[in-house]
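In the laboratory, one determines a bound structure by crystallizing the protein with its ligand and collecting diffraction data. In a computational setting the workflow is compressed into a single prediction: the sequence and the ligand go in, and a structural description comes out. We illustrate the idea with pantoate.
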Amino acid sequence: MKIAIIGPGALGCLLAASLTIKLDQSRDVNPALDLWLLDYKPERARYLKENGLILEEGNQKKTCRINATVDPQEIGPADIIILCVKSPQVAAGLQLAAKLVQEDTLLVTLQNGIGHLALLKNRQKLPPIVLGVTAQGANMVAPGHVCHAGDGLTRIGFLKSASFTRSLLLAKVCNLLNYGGIETVIVDNILDYLWSKLLINTGINALTAIHRCPNGRLLESADTKEKLSAAVWEGEAVARALGIELADDPLAITLDVCRKTAQNLSSMLQDVNRKRPTEIDAINGEIAAAGRRLGIPTPVNDALIKKVKEIEQAY
Ligand code: PAF
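The predicted complex, in structure-token form:
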């Protein structure tokens, strides 16, 4: 089975290293995997090909070789494509994905926010989409060196109903990820889970980027806790108006994630620290845009967007 992971960031490297290392240890029960990392930076792809990946978990470091390239033709048609790029790079990632598609390819997308949904709807020449949302925590230490900061459930599911063949392939993807140590389940209401995660990111990411603090610090001041709560409530009002079924209280979940990931630097703070474009449009931006369409005011999210954009402009 040929798997192409697009984007050697933290999540892409975590998946590539976990699958390669853990499946390699159980070659007898698993079919040989032809796993590739597809990058857009030639120098980094060459480095990864020569040096492989390092997976750091606790005080253990494991290494593995990896096929890495910038040329989709070198990979050829893939059975499974996993798009691990951040939301500002989704459009470019989809162009690469289109070059790997064959008749029954499955495209699995794993992004924060919901900005990629509009792009996926408008693309032709793409196979049926599997959306994914993960609670895995991973940070890049250096190119190809990923630190697995925490385990969490990954949920995957089709955006629209799919053929029997593709459903079987999805079950295989789910099995593979589980064998690779990435606990994964298939769900039939993936959009609801995407929104649940969106609301968590809405409350945490922009505020941590603005205040340059780890997630847990947001609970230590009345001001940031109030803003976090208000941002999530605005998002919740929008989600409910759109008919999204939120299983639990989004604010309670967000506060819990803040506590459990107290020492983490959110992905948006990491972007700001490295002066990279953030996912503000795909997270708070989507809440504000949907709020405008629905006539639901989102003043707290609007203010967060403005501040993060100012930070980006000052890079
Ligand atoms: O984007 C992130 O950093 C993560 O999704 C989360 C849950 C906020 C934890 O840091």
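The radius of gyration is 19 Å. Keep in mind that any predicted model is a hypothesis to be tested, not a measurement.
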